[in-house]
Amino acid sequence: MYTLYGKAGSGSAAVEAALVVAREPFRIVETASWAKNDAYADLLRVNPLGQVPTLVDDDNNAISESAAILMHLGNVHPDSKLLPGKMEQRAQVVRGLVFIAANCYSAISIIDYPERWCEDADHDEKVQQRIRAGTRARLHKHWEMFADVFAGKPWLGGEELSALDLLAVVVSKWAGSRAHVERHRPAFHATLARIEAHPDVAPVLARNWPAS
Fold it and tell me: Which of 77-81, 96-100, 125-129, 200-204 has the lowest mean pLDDT?
């Protein structure tokens, strides 16, 4: 059985959904660096960076980084179709996962902690606000680029739901991205709504965002 260290509303929701799609048993350990509890010490033992999500298998092998976890699950559980069987589609899913990780997911860290990215900004709220505003604008532009490249056919990775759909539907929930793409890329927004309604995905999102 897998152990998933995560926090509701975080990137662990994408991994949780992937485990459901793969029909793999797992347990969730709720913890995070911004909501430390007794379990956080356990997380640090398997991942000194204290990142969520972190996935641990029966042999106590730990994997972090959402995109890497999703690719790993797709490789070790090929019947899940988390990674498509067709090599050209698989390459595009991997491309999309890395795009989100590098360009969208990473921006959230800057929006959440702008003081980490600018010297002497710790106590300057105006500087932090400018960093957040600029990063948010760039994040939204990245989602426009993503939408232009990865059109639903009917899913983002091709004919079947894949890991790319799961990461996109979770990360696009943050920093006003959904409202932005609804205005500027309505077809992509409709694809995200279709992913959310998938019977394996909908219960996971409802648990992670109960008020949405």
Answer: 125-129
Q: Where do the H-state alpha helices sit in the chain? A: 12-21, 38-46, 66-76, 87-99, 106-112, 125-149, 163-171, 177-184, 186-196, 202-208
Mean pLDDT across the stretch 73-86?
97
pLDDT surpasses 80 at 188: yes
pTM over the 0.85 mark: yes
> CA 49, CA 69: separation in Å to the nearest integer?
16
Q: How far apart are CA 61 and CA 76, in angstroms?
A: 14
Distance CA 32, CA 35 (A): 5
| Structural domain span for residue 69 | 2-80
Residue 114's pLDDT is 93
End-to-end CA distance of the chain: 30
For the chain, the domain total comes to 2
**Sheet with 62-64, edge to edge strand ranges:** 26-30, 2-6, 54-56, 62-64
Nearest to 103 by CA among 136, 77, 142, 75: 142
In this prediction, residue 149 carries a pLDDT of 96
Same domain, 177 and 99: yes
